[in-house]
Amino acid sequence: MTGPTSEKSTVRLKGVREGLWVTLDPNQPIAVLKADLTKLFTQAKHLALSAHVILDTGHFDVPKGLTDELTRFLQAEFHVESVSPPRHETNEPPSQNVQKYDMSSSWRRQQSDALIIAGRVRSGQKIEAKKHLIVLGDVNPGAEIIAGGDILVLGSLLGTASAGQSDSEDAIVLALRFRPIQVQIGCVIAAGLPESGSKTAEYAHVENGCIIVEEYLTANPFNRFTWPEIR
């Protein structure tokens, strides 16, 4: 939901069926958490009003009073209706390895907003996804695909693709055959991209305020992650 920043945010915000899911590091100073919450909730102010917020602090030891203080802060500043922790099974023991636990239990804890469609997107058609969009087929010239997150085309991308809408420049646009008329990521737009002649999958991403296209397998953009992360 946010553009690139010089420092990594300690808070993540996503919309789920129950309301707004907030993931944060409880070991950070309260002032830092409040500042990062303010940035995200200011951008999503229309969604936060009277919303239910799920406050996920993982399985770290939470400092006494932190949850209560953040609850009062969100209700006073952004008028959320209620704040609660995630629902976990009571017989589920804490894991010694938080990352492994998160991955193994993610199917219970996470709500996916991804849209997966199969078939050719033809000229004149417009497909929109709230979060990620996966197209199992081609996107013809004159077709338009739009997503709030990443766009993955398992075929030829020949039309127009807009990812990270409306303001996230962290998204990518990937296609097995990358020949779009225009690509937009966040607020950055590139049109008339030259054909690379590559016969492998390529992806577009934002770097230094410009859209860059690279071979996916060569660049390996997610190799920097030490453990799988949910996007």
Write the layout of secondary structure elements.
Blueprint (H helix, E strand, L loop, with lengths): L10 E6 L2 E6 L5 H14 L1 H4 L3 E5 L9 H13 L3 E3 L13 H12 L5 E4 L7 E4 L3 E4 L7 E4 L3 E7 L2 E4 L9 E6 L3 E4 L2 E4 L10 E6 L2 E6 H4 L12
Helix pairs in contact: 1-3
Task: Give a short synopsis of this structure.
By secondary structure, the chain is of the alpha/beta class. The protein has five helices and 15 strands.
Structural description of this entry:
It is a single chain. The longest helix is centred in the N-terminal third of the chain and has 14 residues, at 30-43. This protein has helices at 30-43, 45-48, 66-78, 98-109, 216-219; strands at residues 11-16, 19-24, 52-56, 82-84, 115-118, 126-129, 133-136, 144-147, 151-157, 160-163, 173-178, 182-185, 188-191, 202-207, 210-215. The termini are close together. It is elongated, with a radius of gyration of 20 Å. Residues 1-6 and 89-109 have low confidence and may be disordered. The strands form three sheets. The protein has a six-stranded mixed β-sheet. It folds into two domains: 11-109, Transcription Regulator spoIIAA (2-Layer Sandwich), CATH 3.30.750; 115-219, Pectate Lyase C-like. It contains five helices and 15 strands. With 231 residues, the chain is α/β, with parallel strands linked by helices.
